[in-house]
Design brief:
Helices cover 46% and strands 13% of the residues. Helix 1 (49-65) packs parallel to helix 5 and helix 3 runs antiparallel to helix 5. The mean pLDDT is 90. The chain is an alpha+beta fold and 123 residues long. The chain has a two-stranded parallel sheet. It has a two-stranded antiparallel sheet with strand order 2-3. The chain has one domain.
């Protein structure tokens, strides 16, 4: 197996932040604080706060792309709710089964949910 030393980085997940010195053929490997894997952001502290924030940002972008549809008073509110659940929440909660959710993360998700419902109600 060949290793590209220019692209190789290490990430150590631990409660204590510590510097790790790993060398391959006397070449030091760079240590990183975050790593993006399959669309999820893994951090050195093992928390999912950055991933939750990123997903909420992407969901808000998805919401704004279809805002005229979601806020249309010509459409039934139940249909608009179903559209929000399928088009926005699928983006927001992608990969959520792997998150370690803190109280602040849970609150952030609840705030985003209420923001969605208030926005479509205002129309």
């Amino acid at each position: 197996m060949k290793i590209n030393m220019n692209k190789t980085e290490i990430l150590m997940c631990s409660k204590e932040t510590e510097e790790v010195n790993i060398h391959i053929k006397d070449i030091p490997i760079k240590q990183t604080k975050t790593f993006k894997y399959l669309g999820s952001c893994i951090t050195e502290d093992g928390k999912s706060t950055s991933d939750v924030r990123q997903r909420i940002g992407q969901a808000k972008a998805a919401f704004h792309k279809k805002k005229t549809l979601f806020c249309s008073n010509n459409m039934n509110i139940e249909l608009r709710k179903q559209l929000i659940k399928s088009l926005v929440w699928s983006v927001a909660l992608y990969g959520a089964e792997t998150w370690t959710v803190s109280k602040n993360d849970k609150k952030r998700i609840e705030v985003f949910e209420m923001w969605c419902w208030r926005t479509i109600r205002r129309g």
